[in-house]
Amino acid sequence: MQLHNLTIRAASEMLASKKISSVELTQATLQRAHEVDSKIQAYVTIADDVALEQAKQADERIAKGENITPLTGIPFSMKDAISTRGVRTTCSSKILENYVPQYNATVTDKLADAGAVLIGKTNMDEFGMGSSCENSGLFNTRNPWDLDRVPGGSSGGAAASMSAGLCNFAIGEDTGGSVRMPAGFCNVTGIKPTYGRVSRYGLIALASSFDSIGPMTRDAYDCATVLQYIAGHDPKDSTSYKIQVTNYHENINKPVKGMKLGIPKEYFVAGMEVGVESSIQEAIRTYEKLGMEVHEVSLPHTKYALPVYYLLLFAEASSNLARFDGTRFGLSVSKDAKDVVDIYLQTRHEGFGDEVKRRIMLGAYALSAGYYDAYYLKAQKVRTLLRQDFENAFNSVDVLLAPTCPTTAFKLGEKTSDPLEMYLSDIYVVATNPAGVPGLALPCGFSNNMPVGMQLIGKHLDEQTLFQVGHAYQQVTDWHKQNPGNR
Ligand code: GLN
User: Fold this and answer.
1) For 257-265, what is the mean pLDDT?
2) Cβ(174) to ligand 1 under 6 A?
3) Is 286 exposed, middle or buried, given 0-12, 13-18 or 19+ CB atoms closer than 10 A?
4) Which pLDDT band, with edges at 50, 70 and 90, does 271 fall under?
5) Whole-angstrom Cα distance, residue 344 to residue 207?
6) Distance, CA 420 to ligand 1 centroid (Å)?
7) CA of 179, closest atom in ligand 1
8) Is residue 84 over pLDDT 90?
9) Residue 181: is its pLDDT beyond 70?
10) Is 386's pLDDT higher than 70?
């Protein structure tokens, strides 16, 4: 196997047996990133100096045999919404194009403590608003499987950095599918953990009651490894769970025979690409062969998930993005400004892209005095119903299986003129975020030569079962081993 397609597990074994040093692995990754990424454009920033310094320190740890974790010396990419001290963090917005944080996100600190090596920061839809990376205020990222197609979004750069072999794992963020949907488009494994399982401190907020940081990897085993090191309570994030982190590998090799797999009937509706549907049906049959009991279940409020998600997201985003006003950090446009209000207006006019402005306006409208009850409050009530749907389903099954998207990756430009079309591609991934439950995306086939993704949805804090069920599938299939170079 080539270096750039190694799993964390394989790379870590090579480091431990001294077949390669972290500096060598990092240099090879950086070189590839500089060569290949001119076509893909997954990275906003490639952090050569930071990477080489962290790799050197990792090699010292390995030489001393001290403080070694499975992530020590392993190159990774980070979505550009997560703060990295001294490394530009743009959220792919013009308003933060030159912003260099003075502090690390908790996740950044945790990965540094584990000895992982930051290669660079990945492109995304501006502030996480989008499903294709085309809303990036900086540039488009291309799908490594077909350069005319999108990588998905909003963590499109993260997913592309994985499938193009530009790192050994990626850190993404999922507010309404942004880890799972691009993972599906790029043939990557990725998890949106339970809301509150990973600290949000230092993540530039989109919708604070949905935002969940999660890893993208080459398989479910690696995904469990990374989550193990980034999960946990954080005094700096009062919404992070105060309970101990489960050992995510504990049950990973246990057979899934006798476990119950739920298929939500509302997720199989007209409009799904034929090859997506057949791949999902094939995955269900694989689980049957592994001895799982398959049951149809109902999540009756699914049809409200998309409007509820978007309404609440607009509201939270409009409030979160109020901080970008040209007086604190990032861009400040004060040319001929008469007063401070002029600075606010000019900065936000120049700094924000169209989608961001659209969402701020809609969110402010939904929160305004005359409309709050009709929109925001109503959506919050339906949000409770969405959560109850999942709770009821989990009374009878252990996990749910659904597609990550009705189609495979679409062409660049195909949906940019119609925001509603773009929102519709999130139909299968948005319900989990208002409900707070975890979802693990896995590659499950190809349709018209493009990857198809499925997701396993679990109970609150039951990531362990998702990894077990995901790993069982990957033991008997090899979709996850396909990459644009070997297929
Ligand atoms: N497609 C979703 C949106 O545009 C993605 C949000 C996210 O998960 N960051 O809101």
Assistant:
1) 98
2) yes
3) middle
4) confident
5) 22
6) 13
7) 8
8) yes
9) yes
10) yes
- CA distance linking residue 97 with residue 44, whole number of Å: 10
pLDDT at 1 over 70: no
The pLDDT score that the predictor gives to residue 270 is 81
CATH topology of domain 3-258+402-481: Amidase signature (AS) enzymes (3.90.1300)
Provide the pLDDT for residue 168: 98
Instruction: Delimit the domains of the chain by residue range.
Output: 3-258+402-481, 303-381
Mean pLDDT within 117-121: 98
User: What's the whole-model pTM score?
Assistant: 0.98
Question: Looking at residue 487, what is its pLDDT?
Answer: 76
Q: State if residue 118 touches ligand 1 by the CB under 6 angstroms criterion.
A: no
Catalytic residue positions?
Answer: 79, 154, 178
Tokens of 374: 């009709």
Please give the distance, rounded to the nearest whole angstrom, from the Cα atom of residue 430 to the centre of ligand 1. 8
* pLDDT tens profile 206-252: 999 999 999 999 999 999 999 999 999 999 999 999 999 999 999 99
Name the residue at shortest CA distance from atom 4 of ligand 1: 130
CB 26 within 8 A of CB 52: yes
Query: Which mutation among 91, 135, 175 tests ligand 1's pocket best, with the greatest number of atoms within 8 A of CB?
Result: 175
Mean pLDDT value across the chain: 97
